[in-house]
């Protein structure tokens, strides 16, 4: 399990990451979200040891992480970092060796992964001759080539077509099934909601939400949609609920407690017919807007 404990990074006067704590438990896929400049890349760099820590700790299995352990972590950096002019397979073999594989094992692993991603025929081509999506696939292969014990991926899904996203998801799931913790950052909230066991939301360098998608949704305000037989404007006269929106026969309201649902229904029926009264479950995108506002 990876734990970050009050991790802090200052750049001069700016505190880019401010006492950030969260865990990536074994076998779980954790989505790391936050607006531009929220501090995701800076946090990931500190986890990987490529950027110094101002304060706090990175812990691996309940002890401060060591350099040797970090060599067993797979990382896909934001700046990507492969060589455009080098043949694909050569750099994969080189990176596999850096991560502790023999040349033979690194070549075998590279070959297998390239086949899996439909890139075996491009193995000897220069990286720059591949499409951006295929270059991205090679970047992922570089992160997983040595069967890492932890995966940290900065925006692995950006620029991928839907099929490539599915391939990537399947690969990440293979790792989590083997008990590997996986942390990845993304701006694609629908994808994060669909895939992740847990979601950590960062805003201005701080964790503002952390939990399973369901937990986060339940933590948000309960809203209802009411559709009546006539004009729904009367909801504005009720002092005990908050009106979010009213348009014609429809109203979106926020109730203080679940018991108020009956109260609202009674009021609506007293005034005429009720076509619909439904609870609106917020999406992770709604929660995100709420906690980062
Ligand atoms: N080397 C640096 N020197 C000075 N400031 C930096 C440096 N690296 C990052 N920052 C600042 O730290 C803050 C967090 O940046 P970071 O790249 O971690 O955010 P992010 O969440 O990854 O953003 P994005 O989604 O845009 O990639 C920003 O204000 C950024 O300008």
TrEMBL record:
Coiled coil spans: none
Occurrences of domain ABC transporter (ranges): 2-229
Keyword Transport: yes
Keywords on record: ATP-binding, Nucleotide-binding, Transport
InterPro entries tied to this protein: AAA+_ATPase (IPR003593), ABC_transporter-like_ATP-bd (IPR003439), ABC_transporter-like_CS (IPR017871), DrrA1/2-like_C (IPR025302), P-loop_NTPase (IPR027417)
Membrane-traversing stretches: none
SUPFAM superfamilies: P-loop containing nucleoside triphosphate hydrolases
Gene Ontology MF terms in the entry: ATP binding; ATP hydrolysis activity
UniProt similarity note: Belongs to the ABC transporter superfamily.
Stated name of the protein: ABC transporter ATP-binding protein
Organism per entry: Flexivirga aerilata
Lineage summary: Bacteria, Bacillati, Actinomycetota, Actinomycetes, Micrococcales
């Amino acid at each position: 399990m990876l734990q970050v404990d009050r991790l802090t990074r200052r750049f001069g006067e700016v505190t880019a990451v401010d006492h950030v704590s969260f865990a990536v438990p074994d076998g779980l896929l954790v989505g790391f979200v936050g607006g531009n400049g929220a501090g995701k890349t800076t946090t990931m760099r500190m986890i990987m040891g490529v950027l110094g820590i101002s304060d706090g700790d990175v812990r691996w299995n309940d002890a401060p992480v060591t350099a040797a352990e970090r060599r067993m972590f797979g990382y896909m950096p934001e700046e990507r970092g492969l060589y455009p002019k080098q043949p694909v397979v050569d750099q994969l073999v080189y990176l596999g060796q850096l991560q502790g594989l023999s040349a033979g094992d690194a070549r075998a692993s590279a070959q297998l992964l390239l086949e899996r991603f439909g890139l075996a025929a491009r193995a000897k081509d220069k990286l720059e001759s591949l499409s951006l999506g295929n270059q991205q696939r090679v970047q992922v292969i570089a992160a997983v080539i040595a069967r890492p014990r932890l995966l940290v991926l900065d925006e692995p899904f950006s620029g991928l077509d839907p099929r490539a996203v599915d391939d990537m998801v399947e690969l990440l799931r293979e790792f989590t099934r083997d008990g590997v913790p996986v942390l990845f950052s993304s701006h694609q909230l629908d994808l994060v909601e669909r895939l992740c066991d847990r979601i950590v939301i960062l805003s201005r360098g701080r964790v503002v939400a952390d939990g399973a998608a369901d937990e986060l949704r339940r933590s948000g305000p309960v809203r209802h949609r009411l559709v009546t037989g006539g004009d729904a404007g009367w909801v504005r006269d009720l002092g005990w609920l908050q009106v979010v929106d009213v348009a014609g026969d429809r109203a979106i309201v926020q109730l203080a407690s679940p018991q108020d649902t009956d109260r609202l229904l009674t009021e609506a029926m007293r005034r005429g017919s009720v076509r619909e009264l439904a609870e609106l479950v917020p999406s992770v995108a709604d929660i995100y807007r709420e906690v980062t506002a």
